[in-house]
Specification:
mainly alpha; 8 helices
Length: about 240
């Protein structure tokens, strides 16, 4: 289960892969269902997510260290690691702008990472479980903040997040050049065959990354845009009923 060389041979859309995707979407549905009884379940859900996020991150590094695999490229500077830090901060302190970043970082990107994972190990290897659990907990946490703590994202948050990501990308790009790493996948696509594999090379790779970021942010905003519109209609209806 913890071997470096054993239990390899992950297959895309195998039974195990499809099963974890189904479990993830079932968990999303459960989170929506339990939001109807928010007061009864909120604290349990909150602390479960709060504990799982750092547990996934820390256990991954412990496994890498104990198996003599840890390298500078494993520094917690990938999008999911940064999202984990943002989530922990939000659990401790309410902040709308931090949530804007967290929502766009931790919703669709982790889901896409689960659909086309950079994975070699099969179930029930530790790395398989940790990877899918971590990438599941992030969007579940975003859903928790929306349903249970009332966070919303305005349309202009797309531009705010896009600019912020590009600002962050500058020192990350420089760090990649200095350390020979691939944080944010700014140096090259993933080694495994994922969506990034089709982005080309050279300048086209970066152009496609920029375009993809805008598309992903735009798609990610749609559910909250619909929810925000529904909230506004409800508020207008309440005002109308109160005034009549």
């Amino acid at each position: 289960m913890f071997s470096v060389t054993g239990m390899q041979g992950f297959e895309l859309f195998s039974v195990a892969h499809i099963a974890v995707l189904i479990v993830f979407f079932a968990a999303c549905c459960a989170l929506v269902y339990f939001s109807k009884k928010r007061k009864k379940h909120q604290q349990m859900i909150k602390w479960t997510l709060f504990i799982l996020l750092p547990a996934c991150e820390i256990s991954s590094h412990i496994w890498l260290i104990l198996t003599n695999q840890w390298e500078v490229s494993d520094l917690p500077l990938q999008l999911c690691s940064i999202s984990t830090v943002l989530a922990i901060y939000l659990f401790l302190k309410k902040n709308e702008k931090v949530f804007y970043l967290f929502y766009f970082f931790a919703t669709l990107p982790p889901i896409l990472a689960m659909v086309t994972p950079e994975m070699v190990y099969t179930f029930p290897h530790f790395r398989f479980i940790e990877y899918f659990l971590h990438h599941s907990v992030l969007p579940l946490t975003a859903l928790y903040f929306i349903l249970y703590e009332g966070y919303r994202v305005p349309r202009n948050a797309i531009l705010f997040t896009y600019i912020t990501v590009n600002i962050i990308a500058v020192p990350i790009f420089i760090l990649n050049q200095l350390l020979g790493t691939n944080f944010f996948y700014l140096a090259n696509p993933t080694e495994s065959k994922t969506i990034l594999t089709f982005f080309g090379t050279g300048i086209m790779y970066y152009i496609n990354l920029e375009i993809a970021a805008l598309i992903v942010f735009g798609i990610t905003y749609i559910p909250l845009g619909v929810l925000q519109r529904r909230d506004n209609q409800k508020a207008e209806g309440d005002i109308g009923n109160g005034g009549s």
